Amino acid sequence: MAAFNPKLSSDIEQLSKAVGYSRKCLKVYRDNRIEILRQLVGNHYSNNGADDKVPINLLELAINIYMQRLAAQAPQAEVTTDYTELKEICTRTEISGNQLLEDMKLGDTLQMAVMGGIVCQGIVKTGLNLENVEVGGENLQSGKAFAAYVSMDDWVQDMTASDDEGSQYEGNFYYTTKDEAEKMFPGYTGKFEEIDKQTQDNEDKAHDLSESSGDGQREEFRPTVRLLDIYLRKQKKVLRCSTKDDDGDPICEVLTTIDWSKRKRGPYHKLAFMKIDNNAMPVAPAMHWRDIHDLSNRIFRKLGRQANRQKTVTGVRAGSDADGNRILDADDGQMIKLDDPQGVREYKYGGIQPESLGFLVMIKDLYSYMAGNLDVLGGLGPQSETLGQDQLLSASASMRIQKMQKSTIAFAKEVIEDIFMYMWEDPLYNPTVTKKVKGFDDISIQVPFGAEERADVEFLRLNIDIEPYSMQHTTPEAKLQGLRTIFMEFVAPLMPMMEAQGVSIDVEMLFRKIGKLGNIPELNDIIVYSNPVHEPQPQQAAGKPATTTRNYNRRSVPSASNAGKSQLLQQALFGGNKLQGAQVDSIMRPTG
Question: Mean pLDDT, to the nearest integer, of 381-400?
């Protein structure tokens, strides 16, 4: 078979039909994703949110907990090399590169990709924004690196393939104004077909959740066109195409072709937490969570209706109207006279069924279990009777998180490597970096890091890595605990050796950090800092160490874990044994 030729209309026509077929295959994934997002935003987000109320949003709880564990903040890249002569240039690359990541807000992009991976599949597209700039009177194109999140609504990949290695193409649709499209492709001025987004698609999109007016014609500020970028994996080419209003045969014309053969990988990076054998699409965690989420909310809404129907009425036998009126007029606790006490009786109707409530409690516990023990991952309260048991549970629950973290770190590393490569190759990227002088932390200098400094160094000789925990949020309490651990396990045992080597501790700074991290600003008022007075320390006479006495007392305290409470409640609701005093104390005891 002849090689693919983007200039042949027959080849483009076949590619267009293949893209249309894959878009059709991906529709079920897009629809399921939209339903998960509707449940995530709930019933009060917009007119296009969940159809019914979502009183216990278990999806939102799980997704937020996993987001905090996987991508709470922007990653920090570390640049190293195996070549001694390149260590200094690595430092400059790391400083300028991390500043670029901060400027382009890569952390926000990766958060969206992680959420995409939890719900369906996370996708980030990297590349260069071409801008015309004038240098010395000459017009040049400057490449500005970008990393953009690609929604599944606009994604297409080869669905005839069984995995990424066998995939022939992947790409994304994107929208821009007609003016911008004609500026990017001046040779096609006047040829772009305007797209009416309101009639162009016959399916819901994530954006429709917020754009939910639903009345009248959709109004845009400027006319919009839809473009398509397709990466041909085997040919290592990127085709930028105009499109037509037909999702089954979307490609209208190839606007330009970009050679990608010199790149290590394609422009698209995909995050998947569980791949399926011999299938192109992964299965996402939220796909498994949704059924229990739906069931729990149906049961909870049913319990709410039962509670609303609950009522208490007083029945009065014919002829006992006087007794009924006395009861009606009596205050709470008042003693009244009744002529016929048996003629007046209180009746109760409706109310929450204990079996249904017990089933709901069981569903909630099952959801936490299926989602990897959310109570432990989210720090929602102790799960066992002792701290040691909770630590073991946390370590076990973290195994799933660690696997997902490895996938996220590998995904972020690919994205950052591409960004650093674009930064390295851009001839007009000439920043200066601030470096501290070794041995003089209070002195810093400005060092150039322009194209001249990078020209003689091959980028592939540098190693880019990511600190695994740089993407996780660290609370002040965790930092304070870290300080405590360091001093107890390292500083205290090594203090004699540190003193022998002239290493000292800035006690003032230590207490200031403790006050800040512990949110105790009064500590700075309690401890008064003054100029240090160096006096000789008295030498202790050799002798026996001081005698100390320790008393160990043990006492039994009823356990208070969420799992234990749920079990006791279920026993009671299902008609089990009556709760004893210690069990009641356990239920009433807070778990936090």
Answer: 53
Tally the domains of the chain: 3
Asked which of 248-252, 332-336, 402-406, 563-567 is least confident by mean pLDDT, the reply is: 563-567
CA distances from 77 to 117, 341, 352, 409, 580 (A): 22, 82, 55, 11, 57
Please check whether residues 355 and 306 belong to one and the same domain. Answer: yes
Cα–chain-centroid distance for residue 362? Answer: 27
| 316 plus 373 within the same structural domain | yes
User: What is the per-residue pLDDT for 21?
Assistant: 96
- Amino acid identity of 561? S
**Rounded CA gap, 236 and 229, in Å?**
13
Does residue 510 fall inside a structural domain?
yes
- Convert 89-152 into a string of H (helix), E (strand) and C (coil): HHHHHHHHHHHHHHHCCHHHHHHHHHHHHHHCCEEEEEEEEEEEEEECCEEEEEEEEEEEECCH
Q: What percent of the chain has pLDDT over 70?
A: 78
Where does a domain end: 383, 401, 419? 401
Task: Tell whether 315 and 387 lie within a shared domain.
Answer: yes
Q: 396 and 311 share a domain?
A: yes
- The pTM (predicted TM-score) of the whole model is 0.78
Which pLDDT score is estimated for 481?
Answer: 81
Task: For residues 293 and 380, state if they share a domain.
Answer: yes
- Out of 350, 369, 401, a domain closes at 401
Ramachandran angles phi, psi of 3, nearest 5°: -65, 155
The answer to whether residues 372 and 311 belong to one domain is: yes
Q: What percent of the chain has pLDDT over 90?
A: 33
Helix, strand, coil content of the chain in percent (nearest 5):
45, 20, 40
Mutual orientation of helices 9-41 and 285-309 as an angle, nearest 10°?
A: 40
In a domain, 350, yes or no: yes
> Is 515 inside any structural domain?
yes
pLDDT for residue 201: 53
Query: Buried (b) or exposed (e) across 84-93, using 16+ Cβ within 10 A?
Result: eebeebbbbb
Please tell me which residue, 97 or 553, carries the higher pLDDT value: 97
Q: Where are the beta strands (DSSP E) in 379-488?
A: 432-437, 440-448, 462-466
User: How would you label 419-428 residue by residue, b for 16+ Cβ within 10 Å and e otherwise?
Assistant: bbbbbbebee
- Which residue range forms the structural domain that includes residue 580? 557-592
Q: What is the pLDDT of residue 537?
A: 52
Q: Indicate the helix (H) or strand (E) that contains 561.
A: none
Q: In this structure, is residue 413 part of a structural domain?
A: no
Which residue, among 105, 152, 143, 147, has the nearest Cα to 124 in the 3D structure? 147
pLDDT of residue 223: 86
